[in-house]
Design brief:
With about 250 residues, the protein is mainly beta. The protein is built from one helix and ten strands. Strand 6 and strand 7 form a beta hairpin. It is elongated, with a radius of gyration of 34 Å.
Amino acid sequence: MKKQLRLSLISSAVLLAATTACFAGSYKGENYKGEAMAPAPCPTPLMIKDGFYLGAQLGYDSYRVRNNLGYTSGIESSATNPALNATGWVGGIFGGYGQYFNEMYYLGGELFVNTSGASTSWTTSNVDVDGLTDGYNSKVSVGTSWGVSLLPGLKLNDASLLYVRLGYNQAHIKGQESISFNNVNIASTSKNNWRGGFNYGLGLETTFYPNWNVRTEYTHTNYGSFSNNTSGTRYSPSDNQFMVGLSYHFA
């Protein structure tokens, strides 16, 4: 019995020593045959990169257009300067170049071209004592726009960037009018105009896959006023824009 116990203890000690030696060899980067083993590769952390980039974006336009009517005959004075709200989807492409400074601060330059479906119409009328109607209809619509911007920013972490947009936009804005007097349409006019304005806003960009970024931003643009030379109506537009973009960085 004692002899069997001693044999059991000796066997356990040999097994423990062999196991310890095997573990130590593996820890030093060797397999059980004594061959060198390559260390497991570490995954590359995601980060927003410097350099050139291209992207596409989609969002929503909300234009506010102050419509100061030039023709006011038969229209109540309280309705001669309405604020129209032209809304619609907007989308386009953009491209630019960005660079980090001191590993924390960022500065980029960007160009974009968009097309918008924002539009609205407004109608007012007045019925005289003879039952005849004087009426006015106005429609405002927006088409293509383009702009150039500076994007100063601050790195929140390796994968996220908070930036400010400061730039100049131009948009193609169309104003249309239809005027009736005593139930008869007496004039229909339209005015197409490219108007520019200062564009500013705030955005957040994050990388989700090597070289691929997604961003969301809000911007506001105050456009210059323009007049319809036929009727004298004056349009004063501005735009609030919400946009989501996807970009590819070539660096």
